[in-house]
Amino acid sequence: MMTKSKRIYDDAVKILPGGVESQFRLLDPFPFYAAKASGSKVFDVDGNEYIDCLLSQGAILLGHGRKEVVKAVRAQADTCANIAVPTKLVVDVAKRITEYVPSVKMVRFANSGTEATMHAIRTARGFTGKDKIAKAEGGYHGLHDYVLWSIWGPFDILGDERRPSTAPFSRGVPKAVAKTVVAFPFNDIEATYDILHKEKDELAAVITEPVMANMGCLLPTDNYLTQLQKICNELGILLILDEVITGFRLSRGGAQQLFKIKPDLTTFGKALGGGYPLAAFGGRKDVMMELLGSEDVWPPKRWPARTYHGGTYNANPVSLAASAAVLDILADDRVYLHLDRTARTLFSGLQNAIDDRRIKAKVSSCGSMAHIYFGADEVRTVRQAMSTDWDLLSKWCMECLVRGVMFGHPKGEKMFVSDAHTSEDIDKALDIAGQGFDSIRP
Ligand code: PMP
User: Does pTM surpass 0.90?
Assistant: First the structure.
């Protein structure tokens, strides 16, 4: 049968590479096109309904179309969209962020996680006067050239596990940039120390995700983050914690509250905007004040100027209105209790369903996000995570998708739950997950 999605796709491929607007949205044989979303569900143009555990790649924490958020957005749209002049909303949201995340003393806004990490890195470089950054192998920090390194690849390109090479993740990223990036192995604190110590005189910052959420859901082990922070302090390197996925999701204070660490800079995105484009970076006052100086007028009187930060759409009032509504709701502990309870039921149910069928797979979770590592009982390192059976994950995910649950994305995106997911959603999701497991068993 010719579906509406197929018809749209046939048109789309002529004018959009792959018929989609991001590599991650490609789907074989063609993607479905969404018509609307509400609460825990997404509906496609053919009227199919999906329980949504992709949740806009983690951006939707409270569910789609949460009424307080929609109301705030509507009211703001009536008042003004972007005017590139500060509004009081910017102060309200900044205050909330600094209140929820105490390591963040000062904050600036951006529009995407990519921008937030780019600005945070540049600020760290400006502040320290050094050029290099170190990133955890397997870590994802967005799309700019400085971080599209050592994310994924064949092991011979990635190099020695304990002394990884700086391996490009994409064509088009200048080879010269490799000289500014050093990779280190997450969860191997001795190897991490050796690398950072060797490079310390040139390193402005270390950037890492607290939970390697783009490598499935790889948790830090043996106090890795605390140790990493200590090493950074000792060696005089700034620690940038990329909380674009984990911020406001794993707890009100993000992963840093959960793992009790205090980074120098933090980046936020996704949940912060409640589905609208908004991101932020912030941290130590002395570091953030790098963005300001007496010479910070245009054109700069002294050259070079201090570290530059700008953007036409920074702190877009409509996104800020959504964010203020989200952050207000997050003041209520019940949100996190519900997220935790719902997540626990779903994720333990998935592991039980796997074990009942004697499938070798591990559900790895942290708060309201999880990933299934097929073909493994335990995963502690990035290389182990990369070696799990991502093809089988994709197959299972697809089997569930056609039955009405988006468990993340068949291309490997992990799953999330939202405040809008009900126990009926979870029962149904688990039922479909079981059918999915049955259908992929050899
Ligand atoms: N950092 C992390 C940890 C992310 O997961 C992502 C996106 N998945 C980004 C940065 C980039 O964010 P965006 O897609 O909004 O640019």
Answer: yes
